[in-house]
């Protein structure tokens, strides 16, 4: 029992646990939409792009989250601009994300500011969260929950087929913007926990694991939220006891469960045949 009780002797662990649970639930709720819409590359590109905003924000004395939000918005605008010039969307994402990521790496590598810890920026350090982080993540969680609850059916219709949804009077383009904004909010708020390199994995792994067991989108979403939260909690304890970065710990827990589930499903299918 000491494995689970000892960490709570430290105040920072309680704060980290709250933030991890909220981020896990957020990623789990958004993940199924990202998976169905095949937006994994966009999520990965957006998460990498924010490194430049974070690094420049620290150097210029701007709030970390504000810098990340500006970079996320800038990356989305640049991707849209490049795509409209006839460049394929995956190529546009790769170019924009790589450029902004390179800017961030250049700033981090050339700066002596101790706040620009490359390991924490790339892989996360949830044990360093403070009360302001909790308030921000909680606020984003509430906003995301309200938006998803009020627009669930509309978002689902647009997710499956935006053209058909638009033909039935759904404001598909508005829903696209709303979902992109939600995705950007999740990516930015997950920065402290996961770092810029592992956000996409945390969006996809719970959802992908859930799809192996459940068939309806509603059940997949519920299972994804539960899995995302569970991965975050288990990964946090692993991070604390093994002294490893929180982001990799959470992703490794999720990847292990995904692999076990996949192997079990494959074995079951072979036995049936």
TrEMBL record:
Belongs to the ABC-3 integral membrane protein family. Keywords: Membrane, Transmembrane, Transmembrane helix. The keyword Transmembrane helix applies. Signal peptide: none annotated. Gene3D superfamilies: ABC transporter involved in vitamin B12 uptake, BtuC (1.10.3470.10). It comes from freshwater metagenome. It is a multi-pass membrane protein. This is Unannotated protein. The chain crosses the membrane at residues 12-36, 48-81, 87-109, 121-149, 177-205, 217-238, 244-263.
């Amino acid at each position: 029992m000491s494995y689970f009780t000892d960490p709570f002797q430290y105040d920072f662990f309680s704060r980290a646990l709250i933030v991890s649970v909220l981020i896990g639930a957020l990623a789990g709720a958004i993940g199924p939409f990202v998976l169905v819409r095949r937006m994994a590359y966009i999520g990965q590109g957006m998460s990498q792009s924010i490194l430049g905003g974070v690094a420049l924000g620290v150097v210029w004395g701007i709030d970390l989250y504000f810098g990340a939000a500006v970079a996320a918005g800038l990356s989305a605008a640049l991707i849209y601009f490049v795509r409209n010039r006839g460049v394929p969307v995956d190529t546009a994402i790769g170019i924009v994300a790589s450029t902004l990521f390179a800017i961030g790496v250049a700033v981090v590598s050339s700066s002596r500011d101790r706040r620009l810890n490359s390991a924490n920026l790339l892989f996360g350090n949830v044990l360093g969260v403070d009360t302001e982080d909790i308030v921000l993540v909680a606020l984003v969680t509430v906003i995301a929950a309200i938006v998803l609850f009020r627009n669930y059916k509309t978002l689902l219709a647009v997710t499956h087929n935006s053209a058909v949804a638009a033909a039935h009077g759904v404001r598909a383009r508005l829903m696209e913007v709303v979902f992109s904004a939600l995705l950007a909010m999740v990516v930015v708020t997950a920065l402290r926990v996961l770092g810029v390199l592992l956000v996409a994995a945390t969006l996809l792994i719970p959802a992908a694991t859930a799809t192996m067991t459940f068939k309806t989108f509603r059940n997949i979403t519920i299972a994804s939220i539960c899995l995302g939260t569970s991965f975050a909690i288990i990964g946090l304890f692993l991070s604390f006891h093994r002294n490893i970065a929180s982001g990799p710990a959470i992703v490794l827990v999720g990847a292990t469960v995904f692999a076990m589930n996949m192997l079990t499903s494959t074995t079951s299918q072979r036995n049936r045949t």
